[in-house]
Amino acid sequence: MAEALKNLLGPAVVRAAAGHLDRAARRRGSQGASGWERVTFAAEALRGLERLEFKARALHIASALEASLPSEFSAAAQLIESALAPLQDEDERVDGPPPQSDAGLSGWIVWPLGEFVVRRGLEEPERALELLRALTQRFSAEWAIRPFLERHPDIGFRTLRRWTKDPSIHVRRLVSEGSRPRLPWGTQLRALIADPSPSFPLIESLLHGPAHYSVGNAATVNVAVTAGLGITPLAPSSAPRDTIGFNVTGGSGTGYVWTFVTNNSTGTINASSGAYQAGNTP
Predict the structure, then answer these.
(1) With CB atoms counted within 10 Å of each terminal CB, which end of the chain scores lower, N or C?
(2) How far from 233 is each of 29, 182, 226, 238, 275, CA to CA, in Å?
(3) Contact 161/153 with Cβ under 8 angstroms?
(4) 185 vs 127, which has greater pLDDT?
């Protein structure tokens, strides 16, 4: 049986992150500028971690980071940056984000680091976006950047326009993924749902820019394209225990299977009919 996805943010990842941050803090601490509490981080992050599911683990670890990193955001950002793994040759990993590294913070631990940036850096958008640019080159900041586009759209989209020309293919990927109106596990960008036009220049620039996000291989295949899927209602809301009947059109015509990407309300959905009942949690 395959290992549970949630174990990508397990105790070993927490302990490794504590070690990377501790080594960086010691280097900075020699100059009197640490402010890092390793014992607090390890204790808070590991307490109850294994009872949690995947996204909940990321949020839990982010809370531990809040309790243990320097209270001043700029100091915390400098400490995180100094603990990051060295950048790899993009030709070696252009097919996806890097794994955990023994050389520094990298891989799935970047998810809670990004959540920390959202919680503590939202009122310092320029510095926070600079840090997210560094983080996305070690994993992805596609979830973390979205609250900045909502709170600071002028700064956020100006930064994304500049990043369409960034030398790093992973920063350019962040432009497209971070500005998607809907993203699994990510905040919906309601302004772009209502009017997606601000993202059009970004996509246009990426289409005609440097190399796309791929491994550089090529193949020829015949693809039969059917009608796209249409789901109604598109963005529903419901009170606890209410029901919603979903309908779908298009696709291959061979049947549909309904399931959840994430299920924080403990609701249920009929796999064949799309009949949904909300759980007890709002």
Answers:
(1) N
(2) 55, 15, 21, 12, 12
(3) no
(4) 127
For 240-263, b/e burial (b = at least 16 CB within 10 A) is: eeeeeebeeeeeeeeebeeeeeee
d(CA 132, CA 129): 5
| CA separation for the pair 20, 86 (Å, rounded) | 12
The residue ranking higher by pLDDT, 265 or 10, is 10
Q: Per residue in 53-102, pLDDT tens?
A: 999 999 999 999 999 999 999 999 999 999 999 997 765 445 555 667 78
- Other C-beta atoms within 10 Å of 121: how many? 24
Please name every residue paired with 249 in a beta bridge, in sequence order, or none if there are none: 230
For residue 161, the one-letter residue type is R
Higher pLDDT, 227 or 244: 244
